[in-house]
Description:
The chain is mainly alpha-helical. Helices cover about 60% and strands about 0% of the residues. The chain is built from 22 helices and four strands. It has helices at about 5-20, 20-30, 35-55, 65-85, 85-90, 100-110, 125-140, 140-150, 160-165, 180-200, 205-220, 235-250, 255-260, 270, 275-295, 305-320, 335-340, 360-375, 395-420, 425-435, 455-470, 470-475; strands at about 260, 265, 385, 390. The strands form two sheets. A two-stranded antiparallel ribbon has the order 1-2. A two-stranded antiparallel ribbon has the order 3-4. Helix 2 (about 20-30) packs antiparallel against helix 3 (about 35-55) and helix 20 packs parallel to helix 21 (about 455-470). It starts with a helix and ends in a 10-residue tail after the last helix. It is found in: Cell inner membrane. Pfam families: TrkH. GO terms for molecular function: metal ion binding; potassium:chloride symporter activity. It is a multi-pass membrane protein.
Amino acid sequence: MEYRTITRIIGLLVALFSTTMLPPALIAVIYKDGGGTTFVQAFVLSLVLGLLLWYPNRDAKQELRSREGFLIVVLFWTVLGSIGAIPLVLADSPNLSFTDAMFEAFSALTTTGATVITGLDNLPKAILFYRHLLQWLGGMGIIVLAVAVLPMLGVGGMQLYRCETPGPVKDNKMTPRIAETAKALWYIYLTLTIACALAYWLAGMNLFDAVGHAFSTVSIGGFSSYDASMGHFDSRLINAICVVFLLIAGVNFSLHFTAFGRRGVNLKTYFRDTEVKVFLGFQLGVTAICFLVLLNSGIYDSPESTLDHAMFQAVSISTTAGFATQSFSEWPLFLPILLILASFIGGCAGSTGGGMKVVRIVLLLKQGGREVKRLIHPRAMYAIRLNNKAVGDRVIDAVWGFFAAYAGLFALFMVALIATGMDDITAFSATVACLNNLGPGLGAVASHFGDITDTAKWLLVLAMLFGRLEIFTLLVLFSPAFWKS
């Protein structure tokens, strides 16, 4: 294990990450409502720490193997989550404990969107912007951005990209060189963010809210600058814009690259993809169920208002964004549980959404169907196909392995949370919210996570990391074989 090389890279990336403290400091100067000094202090501390890690190891430039790649990715997220908490620890408003600051920072960076903060409407603009910015950086993965820079630093990036990129098939690159791939992903991500911010601004948001909420929308993070979330704006147009961009961000970004590539625009790319068709069909189905149940219950005063709330909440929760127009936990019958369960599926592989990913669910269902057919015709040969291509047994095995690990971790976290004193519904929904990188839950965590114990918060931080790194990237570090030379 090349520990000096790993330390050198982490030091460089921490120094790079320290620059994220500067935009909030500028926001504090512009709006003059406090927080500027806090972010300048956090910038200096982060930069010094990064340099202290880098300088003694500046000449260590060995090539990375996959094993080092896994370790760097895990260290990167844990270290940056910790560094990201520094401004929240130093800030006077909100006045957070160390545990709460760590929870908020990791929730932002992993795009979970669970919060321990109340009174968002009265917080300094610098803190609000910083929360949005962390989600935006975490959405596509800061590692992917760093991969575009690493070749210039003398370190290959393919190992990091394979460890970071979500989905069961990780070897497909959109462009021949990994740095070009990372840059292509970020160009798409940045373009969507600008388009989303512009749409919000034209729909009536002020510039600060438009940019901040665009960050949290395209990253499918769900942080808002208001306690009422999107319900603060009380605008069907803004809700519709949010839904559209959540659906776009929930699609595999490699499809966006293909559809808007060098050969011109080809929207047929989306409709030929099985995962996208299932994803959109699922969103439509959940929306329809919510609409019919809410319409029958008569909660809202018109069919239009019912459709607005049903569509927004269905898409927001099932894509794992977690925005709200009102608390879905107060909806009648089975709808709160339905939406929580919908988040297990989440977005497409290669998107900014959380959950288990649509393609895995599709492959699990196809494998289940194949086993049923084999019971009827034991000697027949059946191939599982996706987009008219046969899927290898290695991929199917990986998907089943992921599902088994996911189920095991889910049960472990839920039982551990109950052991801290949580009731069953709160423990179940909190585990779902953090392992799926969703955000809101039910019971005691329906509005915020500030009232649960510190032990529960640390457990949920770990669940966020498992969810963001898609289980195995973090789980592999617990294997004794990983540490053997």
